[in-house]
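Tokens in:
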């Protein structure tokens, strides 16, 4: 599911055809309400779900961004999922390319968060090894938006309108530019009381999270589109995972040819 960077619509929510777990029809709001992700948190870290969009041939972007891949239903589900987690996380490259701003701009959706027992604004978590280019994104221009930067550097951004804190966690051996995501998530749980995270990529962050065994669910929008192209960017980008990650379906929705899948990771017992 993609951030189309459009203004929130006042229209009635889209109705989607439910294929799993039982046939029926639901609105986009019904599909993204009452998920109670924080109640699923394992000991020592937040419950983490990925939210991604892909063409049928595996492309994760169109003209360098996700916005062109999804339709209105995809956008509504994308923004709806932001009402369900304590924090929304993305890599620095995604924050820059997609021009992230305040995570929940619409007052009605902030009201939905309150009704779910969450704060009006999720904590924005940005994974950045070096902080390069971050200060120029709209996210840091919103004074209402708390930001936690998960980083491997001791540097800091210049003063911004948004309140910014740092979660410093270097990779193994203090590797430059590598963030120890397991350590960072443990600190978010302990120090920020974050019990659930919605991660919106990008593909490199996804790969690191999967390799570390930190992903619990995947929300995947499949656009009825073929794009082709050399060396396409997929939703997981990087070295082969240590072991294949197996998932099981939780739900499947459809709207005008787009498929919206919720899948749960089968963690080793």
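Residues out:
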């Amino acid at each position: 599911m993609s951030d189309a960077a459009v203004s929130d619509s006042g229209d009635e929510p889209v109705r989607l055809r439910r294929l799993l777990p039982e046939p029926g029809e639901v609105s986009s709001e019904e599909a993204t309400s009452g998920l109670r992700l924080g109640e699923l948190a394992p000991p020592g870290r937040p419950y983490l779900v990925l939210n991604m969009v892909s063409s049928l041939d595996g492309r994760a972007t169109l003209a360098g961004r996700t916005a062109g891949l999804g339709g209105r239903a995809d956008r509504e589900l994308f923004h709806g999922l932001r009402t369900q987690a304590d924090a929304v996380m993305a890599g620095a490259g995604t924050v820059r390319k997609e021009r992230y701003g305040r995570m929940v701009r619409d007052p009605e959706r902030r009201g939905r968060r309150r009704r779910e027992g969450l704060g009006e604004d999720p904590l924005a978590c940005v994974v950045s090894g070096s902080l390069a280019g971050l200060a120029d994104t709209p996210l840091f221009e919103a004074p209402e938006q708390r930001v936690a930067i998960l980083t491997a550097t001791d540097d800091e951004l210049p003063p911004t309108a948004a309140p910014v804190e740092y979660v410093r966690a270097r990779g193994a051996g203090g590797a430059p530019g590598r963030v120890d995501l397991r350590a960072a998530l443990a600190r978010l749980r302990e120090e920020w009381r974050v019990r659930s995270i919605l991660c919106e990529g990008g593909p490199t962050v996804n790969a690191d999270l999967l390799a570390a065994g930190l992903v619990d669910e995947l929300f995947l929008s499949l656009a009825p589109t073929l794009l082709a192209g050399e060396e396409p960017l997929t939703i997981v980008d990087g070295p082969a995972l240590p072991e294949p990650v197996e998932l099981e379906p939780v739900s499947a929705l459809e709207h005008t040819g787009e498929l919206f899948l919720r899948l749960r990771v089968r963690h080793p017992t």
